[in-house]
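Supplementary Methods. Inverse-folding protocol.

Structures were first reduced to a discrete structure-token string of length 225. This string, shown here, constituted the complete conditioning input.
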């Protein structure tokens, strides 16, 4: 069967015929974007119908999930699917409604069997400090990880420092994105100090409020030595 590079699944699906066509294409696809335009009772049925072909796909490399129609039930189903997609190199979950973030708390456990992941973006999820600590521990075990984005995940100083402690010394990490979180200037300094232990000195993106511009010269110096 020839590989189909990219597939877009929009929820809710307009017809059973469209769903059947998607199910037949998924086993040979390498990239999937799941967009939930609105909440619908049949959305979970669609995911369940697509679950088996997704889990049997060994070619899938990229999964992007977004949309205002995501619900906690869909989030739990997605976590189960992600756990079986061990060949992913890029996973993005973004633009979720506020009440869905907590449903992705188990995503860190799901990612423990993903040794080839290069890009992980969990944006707008209510992970908090506890979730950030769990993601940091998992990310530290993924040697191939290059980009980690936890944009607007309600992470404070404790979570940022836990992330930095877990990731210090990571040999592949190039970028850590924490914009939109609740990190103070003191927390950002501790974060940067810890991340300087990484061989590649990753780019760190922080909220403006987390930067003490009086210390900007110190930050520039720290990146050079």
């Amino acid at each position: 069967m020839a590989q189909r590079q990219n597939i877009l699944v929009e929820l809710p699906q307009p017809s059973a015929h469209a769903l059947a066509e998607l199910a037949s294409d998924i086993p040979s696809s390498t990239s999937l974007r799941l967009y939930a335009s609105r909440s619908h009772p049949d959305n979970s049925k669609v995911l369940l119908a697509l679950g088996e072909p997704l889990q049997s796909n060994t070619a899938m490399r990229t999964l992007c999930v977004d949309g205002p129609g995501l619900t906690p039930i869909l989030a739990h189903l997605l976590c189960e699917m992600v756990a079986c997609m061990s060949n992913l190199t890029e996973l993005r979950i973004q633009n979720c409604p506020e009440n869905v973030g907590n449903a992705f708390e188990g995503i860190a456990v799901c990612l423990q069997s993903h040794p080839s992941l290069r890009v992980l973006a969990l944006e707008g999820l209510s992970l908090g400090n506890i979730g950030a600590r769990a993601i940091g521990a998992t990310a530290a075990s993924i040697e191939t990880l290059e980009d980690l984005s936890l944009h607007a995940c309600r992470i404070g100083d404790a979570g940022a420092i836990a992330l930095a402690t877990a990731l210090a010394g990571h040999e592949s990490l190039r970028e850590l994105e924490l914009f939109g979180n609740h990190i103070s200037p003191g927390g950002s300094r501790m974060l940067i100090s810890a991340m300087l232990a990484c061989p590649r000195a990753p780019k760190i993106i922080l909220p403006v409020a987390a930067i003490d511009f009086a210390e900007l010269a110190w930050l520039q110096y720290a990146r050079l030595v």
